[in-house]
Amino acid sequence: MIKHIRTVAQMTRTMRRGEYVGDVPVLKMTLFMDREAPSDHTAQALTMHDINFAPIELADLNRLPSHTFGHAYGRFMARHKLQPFNFSSEIEPLFEKYPITIRYVRVHDMIHTLLNFDTSLAGEMGVYAFVGEQHYTPTLDWAARVADRMAFLPFWQRARMKAAQARGKALARDAAVLVTAPLETLFDQPLCEVRHALVPGYAADQAAHQPTAA
User: Fold this and answer.
1) Interior/surface letters 18-41, b for 16+ CB within 10 angstroms, e for the rest
2) Which of 22, 68, 131, 204 could lock 85 by a disulfide, CB 3.0 to 4.6 Å apart?
């Protein structure tokens, strides 16, 4: 109980400061699990430590050529009024216990960018379907199953959400495991080449589906 109180207090301080936005979702997850369940991707995720904690600045992304992955990610963040998920030094010691959880928080919006899903409910459902199909951790698998069952609730969006979920699952089948990919090192690469390398099914998908991105 004392640990939970301290975690909530830490979250409150972070939100008041308005910086290190990556800290809050990580701290929330630590309230519900003492350690991340191991998965097939844990060892590779642990090698992402230095990349994961290097700060990302929107201004740097905006200076990249417009055809690059980094510039596209920066546009996505600006369009949706988001900030990159940077972490404070207080989160760094938790990485050994929660490597995939912390890594997923960091790259969530990069995955949105690569898959061309917006931040609407349908777009989030599409990303969760992709993540669930790639089986990052048991906890994220559970979240994907919950999202799948929730898709029928807003009946006025049901068809769009189901289509986004089907698209996310299809894109995941031959994709690289994005949670352990060094995405930040690819910011200066052409977006089309990054997609071709990491999400090979993207080109065919675009020919068959209307993306949810605005």
Assistant:
1) eebbbbbbbbebbeeeeebeebeb
2) 22
- Lowest mean pLDDT across 40-54, 79-93, 127-141, 147-161: 147-161
H/E stretch holding 113 reads helix 99-115
The three-state secondary structure class of 56 is coil
Q: Is residue 167 part of a domain?
A: yes
Q: Note down the domain range covering 87.
A: 33-208
Choose the weakest-confidence range: 81-85, 137-141, 195-199: 137-141
Distances (CA, A) of 161 to 87, 153, 194: 31, 10, 26
pTM: 0.85
Residue 27 lies in a domain: no
Q: Which of 136, 142, 88, 92 is nearest to 111 (CA)?
A: 136
Is residue 10 situated within a structural domain?
Answer: no
User: Residue 149 falls within a domain, yes or no?
Assistant: yes
CB 126 within 8 A of CB 168: yes
Buried b (16+ CB within 10 A) or exposed e, 52-67: bbeebeeeebeebeee
Exposed e or buried b per residue across 69-100, where buried means at least 16 C-beta atoms within 10 angstroms of its C-beta: bbbbbbebbeeeeebbbbbeeebeebbeebbb
Contact 165, 126 (CB under 8 A): yes
